[in-house]
Amino acid sequence: MARLAGLVIGMAAAALLVAYLAFGWPVLVVGGPLFVGIVATVLVVALTERPRRALRDRRSGVTPDSPWRTAAERGEIPSAGLMSGFFEISPQTSVAPMGAQVPMQAGPSRPARPAGV
User: Fold this and answer.
1) 51-60 — which CB contacts under 8 Å span 24+ positions?
2) Which residues contact 2 (CB under 8 A, 6 or more apart)?
3) Distance separating the N- and C-terminal Cα atoms of the chain
4) Is the pLDDT score of 92 beyond 80?
5) What's the pLDDT score for residue 77?
6) pTM of the predicted protein model
7) Quick one: how far is CA 48 from the chain centroid?
8) How far apart are CA 108 and CA 29, in angstroms?
């Protein structure tokens, strides 16, 4: 990672030097802040790479303390987790078999209005 960061900063410095030699000092007005921005960006990426890699390894289950490993892999009872029982089907009330007596339903209290009224 350090070699790649050095390469990027070196290429930015070389581009700024070539532009300065070709166009003179006005290039530094824009190129100077751009170069500082490139250096800052590369430093931030280099500093955050190690924690990001550790998080990726932790999520992939490479480390033994990964919370993403299954309960069986950790030696725990699988039904003792946060989502235990979430996908279990609850017992349902029994449904009358086909052809059984259906209770009468009350009809409308008033007849429907005629069309156009």
Assistant:
1) none
2) 46
3) 81
4) no
5) 63
6) 0.47
7) 18
8) 83
Q: What is the pLDDT of residues 17-27, one digit of tens each?
A: 999 999 998 99
Give the residue carrying structure tokens 């390469």.
Answer: 7
List pLDDT tens digits, range 23-69: 998 999 999 999 999 999 999 998 888 888 888 877 776 666 656 66
- Tokens read off for 98: 């086909």
Please give, one letter per residue, the 3-state secondary structure of the chain.
CHHHHHHHHHHHHHHHHHHHHHHCCHHHHHHHHHHHHHHHHHHHHHHHHHHHHHHHHHHHCCCCCCCCCCHHHHCCCCCCCCCCCCCCCCCCCCCCCCCCCCCCCCCCCCCCCCCCC
